[in-house]
Specification:
Blueprint: H1 2-19, H2 40-55, H3 61-69, H4 71-77, E1 79-80, E2 90-97, H5 112-123, E3 129-137, H6 146-152, E4 157-162, E5 166-167, E6 170-171, E7 174-181, E8 185-191, E9 201-208, E10 211-219, H7 227-232, H8 240-268, E11 275-280, H9 288-296, E12 298-299, H10 300-304, E13 306-307, E14 322-326, E15 330-337, E16 349-355
Length: 359
């Protein structure tokens, strides 16, 4: 009887862990923290199933139930693979958080040659549309005019929304979010729900030969946690206040990020054209924000990606926080994560779509 109770308790606890991160932060402000342990639930259930199968115990039904409850988690985690293209009406979109090309240092210490090289590499990306976050460029006639470099490579139409001029105490020339397109931008705007001007959502209606498409470039509210400082923390009484500070900062970001996402989805639902929403979401695929988008849109990695598709280029390499969502008027052909670019703490992601219905 005790064994049965333990199995029931473990299964119930696993289901609760799966559900907690999907709650709106107004219900439980700290529930989003459980997103970090969600992947452990199906792993534990699988190990439990193997053990009970070897024991030939009927209680293996409990891990089976937990695995079934984990199916949405598995779908959000693992890409289904590249789809076959059936027509030529394709459009390719790349999203990339540039981390300011490494220019976030005092002016007299900036590696100008490296910055220019990175700018050239990004400008030469083969795509129809680029959605770039944390862009740095220097206006005027100089080697660091990134927008001019994009235009020389065929991205003739650029919409830049200026962000912060002072980041972490460092004075920058121009930073912000950018949509660069090879095709005309017919309308554009911003959804400003973030107090931090560095976390913006900009959009553009683009006249593609196959029809108009609305693209959202989203940089959702950051957690503002420095990875190096977290890695130095120890599980000790001395570092306990710092751990509390990290957890508090994570918790405080969930609600404003959710509000920003809700405003974005409401705006996108009014579009008369096919919609693509991409960018740096700053949240794992198991949290409220991701699941909110998943109710209304499809995800590029889930439908046309391969493997785990991790996008974070830091010590915590197992994170996928950059996303591309789209509606049913588009069909994904291929989703990729490009690991060639090492200068940012994000890897670029790209998705090729087919128009499934003409405008």
């Amino acid at each position: 009887m005790l064994r049965l109770f333990l199995h029931l308790l473990i299964t119930f606890a696993g289901v609760i862990i799966l559900l907690l991160p999907t709650l709106r932060p107004t219900v439980l402000p700290w529930a989003g923290l459980f997103a970090f342990v969600v992947p452990a639930v199906p792993v534990f259930a699988l190990l439990q199933l193997l053990w009970l199968s070897w024991k030939r115990s009927w209680t293996l039904l409990f891990p089976i139930l937990l695995l079934l409850a984990s199916v949405p988690v598995l779908k959000s985690t693992w890409g289904q693979g590249v789809q076959e293209a059936s027509q030529n009406r394709n459009i390719r979109i790349i999203s990339f958080n540039l981390r300011f090309f490494g220019a976030l240092v005092p002016k007299d210490q900036r590696p100008l040659e490296k910055i220019e090289r990175h700018m050239n590499e990004v400008a030469q990306l083969r795509s129809d549309i680029l959605c770039l976050q944390e862009v740095y460029y220097k206006p005027g006639k100089n080697p660091l005019n990134f927008i001019q470099k994009l235009k020389k490579q065929g991205y003739s139409y650029c919409y830049f929304m200026e962000g912060m001029k002072n980041i972490d105490g460092v004075c920058c020339d121009m930073t912000g979010s950018l949509i660069a397109s090879r095709y005309p931008i017919k309308a554009k705007g911003e959804i400003n729900k973030a107090k931090n001007p560095g976390n913006r959502v900009v959009w553009a209606d683009i006249e593609h030969p196959a029809g108009k498409i609305r693209v959202y470039n989203a940089h959702l509210i950051s957690n503002s946690i420095q990875e190096k400082k977290v890695l130095k923390l120890r599980l000790s009484e001395e570092d306990r206040p710092q751990w509390y500070q990290v957890i508090r900062r994570l918790k405080e970001r969930y609600l404003p990020r959710a509000q920003q996402a809700e405003a974005l989805i409401e705006h996108a639902s009014e579009s008369k054209h096919p919609v693509v929403i991409c960018g740096d979401f700053n949240e794992l695929p198991y949290g409220y924000v991701y699941q909110l988008f998943r109710k209304k849109f499809l995800n590029g990695h889930e439908k046309a990606g391969r493997g785990f598709g991790f996008t974070y280029n830091g010590r915590f390499r197992f994170l996928r926080i950059d996303q591309i969502f789209f509606d049913l008027k588009l069909r994904p052909v291929q989703h990729m994560v490009d690991h060639r670019f090492k200068f940012s703490d994000h890897f670029p992601i790209g998705c090729t779509f087919e128009f499934s219905s003409a405008e």
